[in-house]
Amino acid sequence: MAETRETDSIPTTVLRDTREQRPWGFDNLPVETRDVTLSTGDYTVPEYCTHDSELDTYRPHFAIERKSGHDFLTAITWERDRFERELQRAAEWPHPLPVIVETSWQTLLRNRGCMARRDIHPTQIVGTVTAWSQHYNVAFHFVETRKRGALCAFLLLVRYRLVRQFEK
């Protein structure tokens, strides 16, 4: 089984972290998924990693982090230290770690959806996203649905491959 097309910019295999709670399936997209342990992020492709056979862990130099709206709010509040450690692991990557949040920016700012009954103000979210974007090697992408999140991830993986081909 070939994991990537040599002359194509579209990855054929996406590595998905085994710890994903609600994984994307990339339905209707021309890729298959393979569940592995990733040291950073939730999705990547084989050629963007080194494999540590001793730990059976893949160490990416580009990956995508997926967060549901609730996961994102937890990551910036109760699990902030753990999430910041994840962001620090991507500090040396040549391109930012994309964090795809499965809720729109408008939903967060209007205190709707996952924000309902939360003890966090929208300005705290804006401040955290701004600070992390300046301090860490991270880029946040807010999308309205899980389906759009999967499509955004796939397109970011394709874009990264194109950028790497251009840089060579």
Tally the helices.
5
Largest sheet: 3 strands, mixed
Taken together, the total number of domains comes to 1
Average the pLDDT over all residues and give the rounded result: 89
User: How much helix is in the residues?
Assistant: 25-40%
- Strand neighbour order, sheet with most strands: 2-1-3
Tell me which CATH architecture applies here: 3-Layer(aba) Sandwich
| C-alpha end-to-end distance | 26 Å
Strand content: 15-25%
Poorly predicted runs are: 1-6
| Structural class label | alpha/beta
- Basic shape: globular
Name the helix and strand elements from N-terminus to C-terminus, one letter apiece: EEEEEEHHEHHEH
The beta-strand count equals: 8
- Rg of Cα set: 16 Å
CATH topology: Rossmann fold
- Mind telling me the CATH class? Alpha Beta
GO molecular function, one term: nuclease activity
GO biological process, one term: DNA metabolic process
Organism: Salinadaptatus halalkaliphilus
Domain ERCC4: 17-147
Task: Give a verbal description of the structure.
It holds the Pfam family ERCC4. This is ERCC4 domain-containing protein. GO terms for molecular function: DNA binding; nuclease activity. It comes from Salinadaptatus halalkaliphilus. InterPro entries: ERCC4_domain, Restrct_endonuc-II-like. With about 170 residues, the protein is an alpha/beta fold. It has a single domain, classed as Rossmann fold (3-Layer(aba) Sandwich). Helices cover about 35% and strands about 20% of the residues. It is built from 5 helices and 8 strands, in the order E-E-E-E-E-E-H-H-E-H-H-E-H. It has a 3-stranded mixed β-sheet, with no helix packed on it. A 3-stranded parallel β-sheet has the order 6-7-8, sandwiched between helices. Strands 4-5 form a two-stranded antiparallel sheet. A hairpin with a 4-residue loop joins strand 4 and strand 5.
